[in-house]
Fold this sequence. Notes:
Number of domains: 2
CATH class of the largest domain: Alpha Beta
Strand order of the largest sheet: 1-2-3-4-5-6-7
Number of helices: 7
Order of helices and strands: EHEHEHEHEHEHHE
Structural class: alpha/beta
Shape: globular
Radius of gyration: 17 Å
CATH architecture of the largest domain: Alpha-Beta Barrel
Amino acid sequence: xxxxxxxxxxxxxxxxxxxxxxxxxxxxxxxxxxxxxxxxxxxxxxxxxxxxxxxxxxxxxxxxxxxxxxxxxxxxxxxxxxxxxxxxxxxxxxxxxxxxxxxxxxxxxxxxxxxxxxxxxxxxxxxxxxxxxxxxxxxxxxxxxxxxxxxxxxxxxxxxxxxxxxxxxxxxxxxxxxxxxxxxxxxxxxxxxxxxxxxxxxxxxxxxxxxxxxxxxxxxx
Length: 221
């Protein structure tokens, strides 16, 4: 049976973020995820999880300047030091929150950098992150994202994600499959998911268009 977790970044937006833990528990959820924990005190988040009987399922690595439009820095050759610092911060939070998975947003490919250098940078960063997270007992994930919502994003498809996993040679790197993103980029969802279950560790559910609730759009849930 699948286990469902509430994404507190996307859900219960009628209340402030720290109140969404209670809202998720009241709705019957046992697990939560959200984009970033780093603006909040680790102890406060632990207390909220404990108070409401919730498990932290996943959060992302730091992803650069989100408000300025950055969507990850893992493929940016000039940001390697910042990326590695972010991995250290993610290990601290994931360990404290007892979070088993951390997702890495690859980022928007820098236009002024050769494609082979972008790819090599991403692989090196993923190897580094997978190793450091693995030492803490945490799995690293990468996520393909559609280029309608985020033009220029580096990882855009399931097979590309799988190839990157293979290229790193890491045993601690897996795939986060967002059905909304992959409906836009690929379609053929059921067959693609089934044939890649060996590398998929986490799935996100939403319908298209609009990234709304399953059953409100074109995907046959």
